[in-house]
């Protein structure tokens, strides 16, 4: 099946007379014929649902669909994108370990890596993703266990050179984990370029309608956990009567360990109802993404022509710094998100945003409705203008997430909001 067909038919296969739509199995609990069978479930020697903190039939159907869409051997849904990122790393790392992440990633992920994981004794080095391979190689240490990057960074909109980063990770015998939230598996499948693990915030385009938080981890099945660097995969797990993940689960060792060990202990598994809503979004993902991309390209071109706009970042735009990488990794389109800077001041950016009538101010992105956010007065509010510049965020930077409205309406809204700006009265200079 091609991906459009997978979105509708993978994961749930109704039999004669059964419901066409995915049923919601609203049950925490499962019933068995014998104590012996339950014992086998706890030893992981029999397959089956045990308790809805670890698996549930509705969630499992969605996991199977997403694994197929990404081309992986298995997936694990989580209650948020943050939980997916955290568990993807905690499944590999322990106190005293180190990992490398590209620097232009989602702000919430930076907090997790730089502050919270550090409190647990896990150290992260942030690296400029454009550095040449030899420079990046110098950041590796004997205890480096993983490399992390974002296919299209939120909000910088830089495109990750996945093949380059996979090669660097593999030369050092560690996996590459890629956050593929902005493109979704419809526009990019990082496993085809050598990534080992993919994570998503499904709260964005995959859900698509801004109704359900969620995340997912997908395992390519390609990484060699037996290379000597990852004893937790090759040595007995005492919490499961000495099971060895690489022996019992082979290619699915990583994703099985993430579920039965990490999810069992951390408890961030979504409900059946949450998975049902995510599935509704997935069914229409390809058509929505096509429209997000075509609308965003038109809006990006409009911004590019305006003299009131200092710069526009959109990898789909010819002449964009990341256009070539976008052509390679994202041939069908990049996503619906644009970042741009209004000429002059922070005040001009705010005035522009507050003058928009159709596009709404939201702390959300990748929504079905057009929405905008001003990082300098929200997510990065505590930074000075100098600190913002160091983070690649100009005082006037706006994250503009193009929705599925008629693009003429979106552009007319932008036009009237830009018209309110008087740029001759420049109150601010960098
Ligand atoms: C939103 C987002 C996350 C975090 O996901 P939540 O579902 O909000 O927890 C992670 N990565 C990227 C790229 C995001 O945009």
Automatic annotation (TrEMBL):
Database matches in SUPFAM superfamilies: PLP-dependent transferases (SSF53383)
Name this protein carries in UniProt: Bifunctional O-acetylhomoserine aminocarboxypropyltransferase/cysteine synthase
Cross-referenced PANTHER family: HOMOCYSTEINE/CYSTEINE SYNTHASE, O-ACETYLHOMOSERINE SULFHYDRYLASE
Pfam families: Cys_Met_Meta_PP (PF01053)
Family assignment from sequence similarity: Belongs to the trans-sulfuration enzymes family.
NCBIfam families: OAH_OAS_sulfhy
Residues modified as N6-(pyridoxal phosphate)lysine: 204
Any single GO CC term annotated in Swiss-Prot or TrEMBL for this entry: cytoplasm
Enzyme class: transferase
Molecular-function annotations in GO: cysteine synthase activity; O-acetylhomoserine aminocarboxypropyltransferase activity; pyridoxal phosphate binding
Keywords from the UniProt entry: Pyridoxal phosphate, Transferase
UniProt GO BP: cysteine biosynthetic process from serine; L-homocysteine biosynthetic process; transsulfuration
This enzyme's EC code(s): 2.5.1.49
Required cofactor names: pyridoxal 5'-phosphate
Gene3D superfamilies per the UniProt record, alphabetical: Aspartate Aminotransferase, domain 1, Type I PLP-dependent aspartate aminotransferase-like (Major domain)
